[in-house]
Amino acid sequence: DSGVTQTPKHLITATGQRVTLRCSPRSGDLSVYWYQQSLDQGLQFLIHYYNGEERAKGNILERFSAQQFPDLHSELNLSSLELGDSALYFCASSVGSSGGQYSYEQYFGPGTRLTVT
Amino acid sequence: LAKTTQPISMDSYEGQEVNITCSHNNIATNDYITWYQQFPSQGPRFIIQGYKTKVTNEVASLFIPADRKSSTLSLPRVSLSDTAVYYCLVGDREDNFNKFYFGSGTKLNVKP
Predict the structure, then answer these.
(1) How many CB atoms lie within 10 A of CB B86?
(2) Measured between beta carbons, which residues in chain B are less than 8 angstroms from residue A110?
(3) pLDDT per residue over B28-60, tens digit each?
(4) Of A56, A65, A68, B91, which one has the fewest beta carbons inside 10 Å?
């Protein structure tokens, strides 16, 4: 158990709909990352939040957005869903970095499997 | 632009030592090299991290040459349960090290 929780575990929805995925980081971790993993594909970095502020965006579609709340949990919002958005969505957390040398030890949640029909 | 390059797949037999090499020619001075293991439908799990020379823990060893343009993950005496995808990870210096690229990973298949 990594200490990172994600809800829901599974989500089935129709094209055009909007869904929200939720992530609670490990206690004490300030950084939250979101990744997308389609079938037989590697992990695609979507977005990184550190202590409530957006730090970096990866290959995140404009239809997708995220936020990190004061209690450090994060939500990933996916709208106008398309069939191609079906994937595993992982959240990861880490202590984060504020300068100097960087440690990239991230702890991943179990993922949310999204199926768009 | 790929940040890391790894073999797509490798086969091994139980009890053998497995070495997976990752190329990261554009690694930045402050970057650490981190390896993760992922089983199907599970989130990746941290294995080991290093900056230079050699790092060893209870699971694996990580060898990093002086130029740091590559690294090798060494798994001693693998078992069937080590069958997984292994990712090599370095930071993205173009965006203040806040983006992370996992690359395509290496699918290790351990046979009995």
Answers:
(1) 24
(2) 42-43
(3) 887 888 999 999 889 999 999 998 899 999 999
(4) A65
Is A5 an 8 Å CB contact of chain B?
no
User: Number of C-alpha atoms within 13 angstroms, CB side, residue B26?
Assistant: 11
Whose structure tokens read 């798994």? B75
How many residues make up chain A in this entry? 117
Q: Looking at chain B, how many residues does it have?
A: 112
Residue pair B49/B56 in contact (Cβ under 8 Å)? The answer is no
pLDDT value at position B2?
47
Tokens 């590697």 label which residue?
A42
d(CA A58, CA B101): 9
Q: Suggest the residue from A46, A106, A112 to mutate for an interface test with chain B (most B CBs closer than 10 A).
A: A106
Tell me how many degrees the CA angle B78-A112-B35 measures, rounded to the nearest 5: 30
Distance CA B1, CA B64 (A): 22
